[in-house]
Amino acid sequence: xxxxxxxxxxxxxxxxxxxxxxxxxxxxxxxxxxxxxxxxxxxxxxxxxxxxxxxxxxxxxxxxxxxxxxxxxxxxxxxxxxxxxxxxxxxxxxxxxxxxxxxxxxxxxxxxxxxxxxxxxxxxxxxxxxxxxxxxxxxxxxxxxxxxxxxxxxxxxxxxxxxxxxxxxxxxxxxxxxxxxxxxxxxxxxxxxxxxxxxxxxxxxxxxxxxxxxxxxxxxxxxxxxxxxxxxxxxxxxxxxxxxxxxxxxxxxxxxxxxxxxxxxxxxxxxxxxxxxxxxxxxxxxxxxxxxxxxxxxxxxxxxxxxxxxxxxxxxxx
Length: 318
What we know:
Oligomer: single chain
Low-confidence stretches: 1-25
Helix content: 25-40%
Largest sheet: 10 strands, mixed
Mean pLDDT: 90
């Protein structure tokens, strides 16, 4: 585990992208995701807006996603991070991804921002259902990642395990490259649609997203209630039909060490300036104060609670 932390820290340092001239040394490091994912693109937009409009400086950095962001925050390297709601719950309760290392409780919720969809991407016209993945070469996310567990959840409700496919463990960008090169048949990608990597693939290939039927969605939610039904319109990737799938929430978490004023500045800027943010990134259109304050599994930071209280909303805090 320590070795993985060191490697992650080195990668973050190399790929750090300052959003203000000079990259202030006291800037709050914001762990996002891979450079072809929604977390990174949207995170940069948010960091720029917060840093420009308030005394709080935020610097977005490329990361390995939800688990990495929590681990780096636990080490003190990141002060903010994007996470999936399921991974956030795993960390806080010390389960699944965090069963071996133990619970991480030094963070709080800042706000839920949007839903991110489980996208089962293929360019193989013979793959029409999740059951068709049996025996195929399938990327199920980086080993131990949130995507990995999402993939196992989906396969599980169809009576399959990791053993029933030929799994590879790749990031969004690598998965798309492998699809394009014919090395894999399908890939699980969990991110807000449209996702840059998939959009890029759709410019050269006919992209299909594999749907999940109503019965299997109901079965999944029964055992894993952090999922919600979601429909991705055909127009998102120029597909022939809409895709019925599930989604988890994308949440910004913050270290408990961050001051109330800084967290207030972060949350107030995101929601008070959402129209301007939407001009720079499509996900800005999905920002909603009621959804932002809907998290129940991890308490909110007092600075975030102050903002929601101004809008007549009470959220749980430590």
